[in-house]
Amino acid sequence: MDYVSCTNQQHAAAILEILNDAIVHTTALYDYSPRTLTDMDSWFDAKTSAGFPVIGAVGREGRLQGFATYGIFRNWPAYKYTVEHSVYIHRGYRGRGTALGLMQRLIAAARQQQIHVMIGAIDVANTASIALHEKLGFAWAGTIKEVAFKFGGWLDLAFYQRILETPRQPVDG
């Protein structure tokens, strides 16, 4: 397995396939409509301009098996040391440790960028993702009940957080 920095040009179509599968078939993403390649342009632009990583796992056959990234948690300056992350795995590669490797690299990137708190918002029925986060030292921070409606039912969203030892000298502003 190779871990790469994903780019719009090389990886947008594969990331789009993974995201759209999650939208259409799972509650891993609380969205109804599949995204387009045009959507990926603005998605990558936002990640690049903010300096946020998009880390991909590429198998020996050259296929993107999954990706992990993070972005703004809340859009107020005092949250500058907190990010909300996501990790998505292609349906054909789930259960093989790909998410663990991606998350380990994403945590390392967060430390390098002086992030203090990583937050994962996880559907409570996604027990595999919850187990992964707990294995990586994330702690349950709370659940918002019936926060979304998809596939004919109400969904509960659990928040998991990991506090990192960075930054050494945080500043206001």
Helix and strand string, N-terminal first? EHHEEEHEHEE
CATH architecture: 3-Layer(aba) Sandwich
From the spread of the alpha carbons, the general shape counts as: globular
Strand segment tally: 7
Task: Give a quick rundown of the structure.
The chain is α+β, with helices and mostly antiparallel strands.
List the helices and strands and how they pair.
Layout: E1 2-5, H1 8-25, H2 37-50, E2 54-58, E3 64-72, E4 82-89, H3 98-112, E5 117-123, H4 127-135, E6 139-150, E7 153-163
Helix pairs in contact: 1-2
What can you see in these coordinates?
By secondary structure, the chain is α+β, with helices and mostly antiparallel strands. It has a single domain, classed as 3-Layer(aba) Sandwich (Aminopeptidase). Helices cover 32% and strands 32% of the residues. The protein is built from four helices and seven strands. Strands 1-2-3-4-5-7-6 form a seven-stranded mixed beta sheet, sandwiched between helices. Strand 6 and strand 7 form a beta hairpin. Helix 1 packs across helix 2. The longest helix is centred in the first third of the chain and has 18 residues. It is globular, with a radius of gyration of 16 Å. The termini are far apart.
